[in-house]
Amino acid sequence: MQRLQRIATGSIFIGLVVLALKVFAWWVTGSAALYSDALETLVNVAAAALTLGALRLAAKPADANHPYGHDKAEFFAAVLEGVLIVIAAGSIIQHAWFVWQHPAPIAAPLRGIALNAVATLFNAGWAVVLLRAGKEGRSPALGADARHLFTDVVASFAVVAALLGAVLGGALWLDPLLAVAVALYVLFSGWRIIRSSVGGLMDEAPDPVVLERIRALVADHATGAIEAHDLRTRSAGRLTFLEFHLVVPGAMRVDEAHAICDRIEEALRREMGSLVVTIHVEPEVKAKQHGVPVL
Ligand code: ZN
Ligand code: ZN
Q: What's the CA-to-centroid distance between 246 and ligand 1, angstroms?
């Protein structure tokens, strides 16, 4: 967890460097397209700060007020980040409209474009680091950050290339149109981030492949039991909660049934990592002839 927090701090630092370069690129050129890119980076820095706050909160152990832990704080950060993206897109479109109505020649275009390209390279390197860390730590907030940054990098390179073409070809009316294209791209990435975080907040079912693997593990390690049914899972960031009913012969002793439960929990945790398992033991009259039969 400490590692994730260090990465989030790194995001803020890199974001500030990139932001300074991109604002400078916009300042020397006055280009709407470079403005859109700088604004997107401003959102990045704000989002990185939000992520750091969320990670700190998520790392707190469960307490009396939040007995299931604080992991869902990460989803809130991702949703807020999506909202920020929508606001940034609105501001870009507004600025593009202004430049469209008051066209002015772009000053020092090549210097501005070069500055922006250098900043974008910083971002590209950092996005790779984030994506890897988000996957390893199963952190939706870092994952959302990385995807957002990749969107930024792709958009930036496209903008820089197109702006360079426009400047060399003398088609400066392309500048505000490029900014609008960036805004649309940014909106699309915001929508994806909001969508995945809402899925987490609404306890969306896990991937069918993961569910199938859980069922197989239960079936393999429940020897002595009859069946497992009403299996449900939900995930909160890195933590996954799993619960199900385990049907055993009614005459089985409590310690034997408990040993089966412990075996299943062991096997699941060994393969799935941070998993909180709750098993409700029932006698055979409760068997439903569906769910996971144990052979
Ligand atoms: Zn039952
Ligand atoms: Zn126990």
A: 7
Q: Domain locations in the chain?
A: 2-201, 208-293
Q: What DSSP element (H or E) covers 280?
A: strand 275-282
Q: How wide is the angle at C-alpha 117 spanned by C-alphas 129 and 107, nearest 5°?
A: 150
Q: Bridge partners of 293?
A: 227
pLDDT value of residue 225: 94
Report angle CA 72, 74, 80 to the nearest 5 degrees.
115
Question: In terms of CATH, what superfamily is 2-201?
Answer: Cation efflux protein transmembrane domain (1.20.1510.10)
Give the orientation angle of helix 73-101 with respect to helix 32-59, to 10 degrees. Answer: 170
Cβ–Cβ < 8 Å for 14, 44: no
pLDDT at 295: 66
- Assigned superfamily of 208-293: Cation efflux protein, cytoplasmic domain (3.30.70.1350)
Give the position of tokens 């700088």: 38
Q: With a cut of 70, which residues of the chain have pLDDT below it?
A: 1, 140-141, 295
pTM equals: 0.67
**For residue 278, how far is its CA from the centre of ligand 2 (angstroms)?**
9
For ligand 1, the distance from its centroid to the CA atom of residue 290, given in whole angstroms, is 10
| Nearest Cα residue to 33 out of 168, 164, 191, 182 | 182
